[in-house]
Amino acid sequence: MTSQSLVYLVALPLFGSALLLLGGKRTNRWGHLFATAISASAFGVGLYQFSVMLGQPDSQRALTQKLFSWISVGTFQVDAGLMVDQLSICFVLLITGVGTLIHIYSIAYMSHDLDRRRFFAYLNFFIAAMLLLVLGDSYLNLYVGWEGVGLASYLLIGFWNQKPTYATAAKKAFVANRVGDMGLSLAIMIAFATLGTVSFAGVKEHAGQASTGALTAIGIMLLVAATGKSAQFPLQAWLGDAMAGPTPVSALIHAATMVTAGVYLITRSNFIFDAAPTAQLAVAIIGAITLLFGAVIGMAKDDIKKALAASTMSQIGYMVLGAGLGPAGYAFAIMHLLTHGFFKAGMFLGAGSVMHGMNDEVNMRRFGGLRKFMPITFATFGLGYLAIIGVPPFAGFYSKDKIIEVAFNAGGIKGITLGAAALLGAAITAFYMTRVVILTFAGNKRWDEKAHPHESPILMWAPMVLLAVGSVASGFLFTRGDALRNWLAPVVEPMPVHEAELMSPAVVSILALALVVVGVGLAIIKYFLSEVPVVAPTDVTVFTRAARRDLMQDDFNEAVFMRPGQAITRGLVKTDVAVIDGAVRAVARLARGSGNVLRTTQTGFVRSYAMWIFLGAVGLVAAIWMVTL
């Protein structure tokens, strides 16, 4: 495969989406099968590209393809081009591989939906936009894919927009992402103004010529973009509500791919952050805050999808923390991103399977004992659970523990603080994820007679089984012989191994496992050994009430941003009405008044006109006489 075939990775799903949307009802019978085949074909192209890269030396693995000259204005020259290297191919395989499994799952999950063809068209469009995001060879090309996935997310979250709450959730996600996208726009502008280029290669080449202040500004703006797309503090409020969309959407967009785009952006821009320590530290701090923020929220959610959404927020916090630790952490951030793609997508599909068997019920307090009725769902969800809490030898043990280790070894107060936050997050994760498993699959049944739980069809559980395999094996494969770290080395340029470590890997693993045991034990005591009420108790602490309301994030955004924004808007409207529109109306009134005055001179009598002509002539003669004196 040559670089000229990179375009097929994006063109295939884009063609599939266009055909299904433009083909209309004529494609209803086979549209879902066609879209799935298209996604699988893109995965095949990605696999072949990966195999070709494996046969090349490190220096020749990156390939680029120029599609056409996009912008040519003076010194601003931008080509529409694609680039695949060791970093982007990881995302290509994740997007198309997990995406194809979710397409297969959706065939059964959406089988009774009258608009299934449109749903699959949107899925294909999302795959195309996400591939463009990770394959673009410049920040501007990435920006096109970045906006594309934002549009796809809006369409898929609001797919059932006949329900007002779903439409509202879609708009909330869209607006929150646009706020973050302003950061990416400003970063691109600052990069061009400072460095004269927006291509990755050009920015990397000229970064050494820019001031630390300019690079810090670019880095902070890139971080703002990442916080919006990856639901990080303070732009994380949209992710929980985004669970209104169909469950396959939650698995594909809000667990495995789109919400990890911010991690990709930071890692791709490693040459910016390595030269701007302040921006890099800000990345690590945001990640640490978010991993705790999401974990605390996850403890209080009774909606199974919202609990997993809070978990996603927290786990991406770990990835952002890893990326904020610089060259020592980039590879481990990507490793956790990839392992998370397996176990979290599997658990979201498991949640969809539970909903499928429980008449779309999402309240875990109305589940209980489902392991007997849904053994495959229980087994696959359970393997994902063991992976996310970091039990060896499951995937999360390898990736999350490495981030905790690197955090501690960052040194000084920074290392101790970030490492302690990551360890605490591991304990809370073990608690709330055990809570999810117990409330859903263990204990006595708490559902009413209308529910008839049953195992999902093979098209739904087969993808869950394959993702469960990834939850078990991926971490070991990535760390064996430092495979992933060595693979990514030409892109992220890892620093040498620490000569003196604050904490060895063994000590970190022991501490993490001890805290996991504590978290699991507390959850068992509270939710397995005690009676679980079907209705959530109201006599709870202020902390619990705050966690149920997402730690007041919507209240904060409303008080700090929305209400002042409304006040400013009202003031601008009044200014517009009083000053701008007032000036226009004053001109109109002046013209109308002048017309009314002049109209009185138009009497229709000939003698009046003759008098005015006579007076005009006298005035003209008098003026001439005065001038000639």
TrEMBL record:
Pfam families: Proton_antipo_M, Proton_antipo_N. Residues 138-419 form the NADH:quinone oxidoreductase/Mrp antiporter transmembrane domain. GO terms for molecular function: NADH dehydrogenase (ubiquinone) activity; NADH dehydrogenase activity. GO terms for biological process: ATP synthesis coupled electron transport; electron transport coupled proton transport. It is a multi-pass membrane protein. InterPro entries: NADHpl_OxRdtase_5_subgr, ND/Mrp_TM, NU5C-like, Proton_antipo_N. The chain crosses the membrane at residues 6-23, 30-50, 86-107, 119-136, 182-203, 209-228, 249-267, 279-300, 373-395, 415-438, 458-478, 502-525, 609-628. Keywords: Membrane, Transmembrane, Transmembrane helix. NCBIfam families: NDH_I_L (TIGR01974), PRK06590.1 (NF005141). This is Unannotated protein.
